[in-house]
Amino acid sequence: MREPPAAWLPPLGRSIDQLLASVERLTDSEVREPSLLPEWTRAHVLTHIARAADSRTRLLTAARTGAQLPQYLSEEERSRQIEAGARLPAAVLVDDLEGALRRFLVMAADHPAGAWKVPVRWLGGSLRPVGGAVGSLLREVEVHHTDLDMGHRPADWPEQFVVRELATTVDRLRRRPDAPAMVLHVAGGAGAHAVGGGAGPRVSGPAAELLGWLSGRIDGSALSVDPPGRLPQVPPWRS
After folding, report:
1. What pLDDT is attached to residue 2?
2. Which InterPro entries match (predicted)?
């Protein structure tokens, strides 16, 4: 049975604390350095996380009040906000990030238990339950913490997050026609996941390493392939 959204608030809070501890002493020159994301500096990543948190606070407000508040006005507006924020000084960026994340935690902790299934309008226009805001923000925080290139690796991602996100990623891959045929085997007897019919190679390793590779955050060099050879070419992953 899937855990209720409120059950993800404690791990989200811990992940937020770890992220803020990593960035609190960033200098103006350090935030202008490249992140692991193409064409984005660390400042872009910090602003992206902050606006992602604000967008989910907006969805919680919509669910509780009935107001027609979309997650973002548009893709273009989201990009404009990120570019504008990326020019700010480090101290301003970190304060903005902390404020946005803390506001979400406060509102989510106070969200009525019966209102997590209220449909709200996510980016792209789809209507989905607001309960997805908690888990998806955890994904934003953990994955983009790694994208900052400050030492936070997939091996540092919370186990609870890795288990859920690996299952979600495999499910998405199974629906993609461009996914390669392979079997993902989680070390430690935690199960295997067939993708693309499962007729391809067996890719084995710890769950976090598998997820890190599938998400494009690591090269998968710690994984093993049977029969020996190169890792399959997986399609781009989006957080």
Report:
1. 72
2. DinB/YfiT-like, Maleyloyr_isom, MDMPI_C-term_domain, MDMPI_metal-binding, SCP2_sterol-bd_dom_sf
